[in-house]
Each structure stands twice: as structure tokens, then as C-alpha cells.
Known about the structure:
16 helices; 2 domains; binds manganese (II) ion; binds 5-thio-alpha-D-glucopyranose; 48% helix; single chain; alpha/beta
Amino acid sequence: MAASYQPSKSDKFTFGLWTIGNPGRDPFGEPVRPPLKPHEIVKIVGELGGYGVNFHDNDLIPIDASASERDSILRDFKKALDDHGVCVPMATTNLFSDPIFRDGAFTSNDARVRAYALQKTMNAMDLGASLGAKTYVFWGGREGTEVDASKDPRDGIKHFRDALNFLCEYSNDQGYGLRFALEAKPNEPRGDIYFATTGNYLGFIETLDHPEMVGVNPEVAHETMAGLNFFHAVGQALEAGKLFHIDLNDQRPGRYDQDFRFGSESFKICFFLVKLLEDSGYEGPRHFDAHAYRTEDLEGVKAFAAGCMRTYLILKEKAERWNADKEIQDLLAAIKREDPELESLCRGYSAEKAKALKARAFDRKEICRHPLQYERLDQLTCEVIYGVR
Ligand code: GLT
Ligand code: MN
Ligand code: MN
């Protein structure tokens, strides 16, 4: 690895148009930065060494754009993609900004809203696929409630399932070959959002008509808001073969969705996350779904974007260092106690194995004498992260 931590296309770093283009609006304050055009964002990503840009339909084409506005935006956007060698690996639909989605999109109580959400998503899939997207993200920001009297959650889930089943068929029908990635969030902008965690979605996916087409898009901030361990969530998704995409950013637990620069807060979780992604051979984009602090101007936005990628590469190097550290590896080897005979007894049920296992005597006190040395292991891990090892 180049010690310069300079990103290259092969790192597959991507940004949403809505991330670099975030003007710094929040619930209490107006934008602090002028809007950036999509083609200007592509230029920034390309010049910083990024691989791709992702977008919601309306990040690229405003919801009320005329046909000629659409044509001219697309022309500039495609030219910028070509000029800067930037691709579009993922696309998604804005099903949350327009007032029509005030009470949900696919899970709205109003059949007209559900139908419009489906129509809008098909159009957005056409747009995304025409620009080369292979992954399609679903973040159901408005799919939830404040007033539980208003909806039976079972109906919400059924409506959401109907929509995804319909859209899987649509993608196949059009030959788009899209893979869907479902993104969980516990709350905000709704009081409570359905499918609050990545684990909720992993359970739901198996109930779809085409589970093989659907995976997850976990986001650091969203699991962390709920006080959960993001490293574990990604581990479960990977183990299930369902990590189709990932939203990297950072977050302090228990707060609003902060979408901070990747690795700016939770150094240890981000370290293990990068190590997991790299060790697992995950081949998808490393997408930064974050934005610059509201204090920043355009230069600050570039510093933010460069910082996300640089931190990822620093953590990648630290993960390699951790993997190559002899003392750490010796500790890991000593922690594990292999026992082929016992392991085979416990794997693959048979009545004989159950009987043999029940007859087995275990010396609990002796087993507990085996030292684990986690204090030492964790200290060494911290020292790798702190840069003294
Ligand atoms: C929105 C949200 C993100 C989602 C985006 C995809 S939009 O910014 O906060 O977490 O990934 O719809
Ligand atoms: Mn996200
Ligand atoms: Mn977020």
C-alpha cells in the first residue's frame, strides 16, 4: 500500500450526489453553502480520486424538471462522468422529500400514494440503469409512524413486500440485472421507522419472492444511533451473503443522524469494520454517505470528502499491520482451543452424537483456568490504532 494514502479507482470509493452536494440545511437552519450542480460534484469526486457517484432520481433531475431541462442536465452529467472517469454504481429513489410522502411511500395508508411511489421508483430505476447502476438502494425514510393508531405494522410490512416483489419483477422484465439493497434506520425523519435495523431486513428478505436479488445497505450512523454494534451488523450481513452495498460515515450513539466524516468518531469500530470488509474480500463500492459540517465552505467539503477516503486507507493499512503482528496473532492462537473430536460431536445432529454428548463429563473449573488475555489483546489493538505499533 502506498504510504501516501492516495485513493485510486480500484479502491471503489463512491459518494452520493446528496453528500458532497449537501448544502448544510438542518431542521433549525437554512443552507450555508450554495448548491452544486451534479456535473460539478462528479468533477470533485473524479479529481479527488473517487470511483463513482450515486444519486436519488431528484438529486439529478428535479421532480418538476421539464423535458429540455432533463436533457441538458443529463448531457452535462454524462460528459462529466466521461471526462473524469467516474461511474454510477448505485441509484435510488427519493421517496421522502415531496409532501405526498408525508405519511409513507410504499407503506402509506393511501393506495394512490403507494401507486405513485411504485411509478416513481420504476422511472428512477430506468434512469439509474441507463447510467450503468447495478445496485438499487431502498431507504424507507418515511415508512413508519408517529401515531401507532394510524397503521397496523403488519399492513406496513405487507405493503412494503408487495412493492419490492413488484419491483424485482420489473427489473427482471427490463433486463436491468439490478440487485436491491435495503437500508435500515430506527427513526428520523419518522418517530419510528419500520425495519429499524439491518437484522430486521435480513429476516424480511427471506419472505420475498426473489430473496436472491435482495440484500442490505447498512449505514454506520443508523445502527449506531440505536446503540448497536455496527461491526456485528455487517458481520451478519456478510455471513449471509447479503452485503450488497455499504454506507460509511460516523456517528455518536443516541443522537440525531449525524452523518459525520468516516472514522471521525468511533475509531475502534471503524478500524474493525475496515478490517472486516478487507479480510472478507467484499468487492462492492465503499460508499460514503456523509456530509461536511455546517461550518464548511466548498474547500471544507473537499477536505471532508478527501478525509473519508484517506481515513479508510489509513485504517486499511492498520488492519494489515494488525494481521501481521506476531504478538497479536500468537494471542489469538492461544485464545482458541481446537478439539476436533468434540467439534465433530457437536456438528450435524444424530441420536448417537446427542447420547455421547450427554454422557460427556466437563471439568468446568479446569476450562476456566485457560487464560484469555483480552486486556493485552485489546491494548495491542489500541496501540495499532493509536499509531505506536
Ligand atoms: C438520506 C439518508 C441516507 C440514505 C440515502 C438514500 S438518503 O440522506 O439519510 O442514509 O442512504 O436514500
Ligand atoms: Mn445512508
Ligand atoms: Mn445517515
